[in-house]
Design goal:
Layout: H1 6-12, H2 14-25, E1 30-35, E2 41-46, E3 48-51, E4 54-59, H3 64-71, E5 74-78, E6 91-100, H4 104-114, E7 121-136, E8 140-146, E9 153-157
Antiparallel strand pairs: 1-2, 1-5, 3-4, 4-7, 5-6, 6-7, 7-8, 8-9
Amino acid sequence: MTQTNWAAFTTAEPGLAKIAEERFGGFTHHVLATLRKDGSPRTTGLEVRFLHGELWLGMMPNSLKALDLRRDPRFALQANPGDGAGTDVGDVRVGGRAIEVGDPATKAAYVKEVEPPEPFHLFRTELTEVVRTYVEDDTYLVVEIWQPGAPVRTLRRT
């Protein structure tokens, strides 16, 4: 499966990217799913940032989620659903691979803008899918699925 960064997704599907950024921007903490050593899922809270065409994941040093991603970079990130009120745009989930940033200049630029507690792990993401799920006209459950190199597929269920 092809992977791409946030900027490429935004270019390919600007409307869906805007909705996704607004959904993640509505709350500070979201839910990250990683894979443990034994392959079972681990879910944890996480803050995310959209900067310079990338979706960034920052983590405390040697956190289990960071160690999971170092071992197996696959992840799923679910936007915080909030209290359920005012979520007309629906739920958004991003899947892909998290690549740890080793370049000191890239990490320094992130620190300059975000000012995270240091030390920390920083991962940039390569997307394999973005999914939006919402209710349309109180009748249909609509699922929009984007994957690199393909247009958004829309499924409607009653």
